[in-house]
Amino acid sequence: MTTSVENDGQPAMHTPPIVSSQEWQAAHANLLVKEKALMRARDALAAERRRMPWLAVPKDYTFDGPQGKVSLRDLFAGRRQLIVYRAFYEPGVFGWPEHACRGCSMVADQVAHVAHLNARDTTLVFVSRAPQADIARLKAHMGWTMPWFTITDDFDADFDVAEWHGTNVFYRDGDQVFRTYFINNRGDEQMGGTWNYLDITPLGRQELWEDSPEGYPQTPTYKWWNWHDSYVADAPPDKKWVEVSDAGEAAFRKQHASS
What we know:
- The structure is a single chain.
- With about 260 residues, the chain is of the alpha+beta class.
- It contains nine helices and ten strands.
- It has helices at about 20-50, 70-75, 100-110, 115-120, 130-140, 155-160, 185-190, 195-200, 240-259, and strands at about 1-5, 15, 55, 60-65, 70, 80-85, 120-130, 150, 165-175, 175-185.
- The strands form two sheets. The chain has an eight-stranded mixed β-sheet.
- Strand 4 and strand 5 (about 70) form a beta hairpin.
């Protein structure tokens, strides 16, 4: 390790050694082996998650939304999967009414464009106990665009988010709703990206490479990807994008086969 002295009088940092390009590439290659193993372990865990048993939700719940009262089934917005993040924005939370909880606000700042989730039959919503007028003002102030509803009953108590933030996942089969997954603490602090969200859903990313139960929807990898303003329901993959993604994947596989 090398040592560098901070100019402001702070304790010296013991930094890694400075090496040649060849040594750096070797170190990177060694670490990449472990990173790929971790990635495959995450894929395997997601596959196991898709096989978790489901819990029926016989009770209906009511929320306030921008257009009035809605049910839990309404939150799906016609899709099969629903991800609900419980954010703390309400009287008694530090920052009220100008801000939501700092941690929940960081989660909100990380949320990717929901159009990509919607394209995979998945809806993401935030819920809090704040009135809709306050939520609308907060969203406008912070630049957040995800759907955000007001809890009006025991939803938070029934789904383990009355005292702490958490992310619940639900699946809708007709009018029947099932709870399929729940994650909180550091687990949902790292949520926000499209892939992280899809990996906690019962259907997953819905791509052919995934290990999913028989009959689950799956489409060719990359082909469903689109600009967030260009998704069209039931539209076939863009032919030009198929060509580009096929060529890129072939080049990637050729490079790794020769290395």
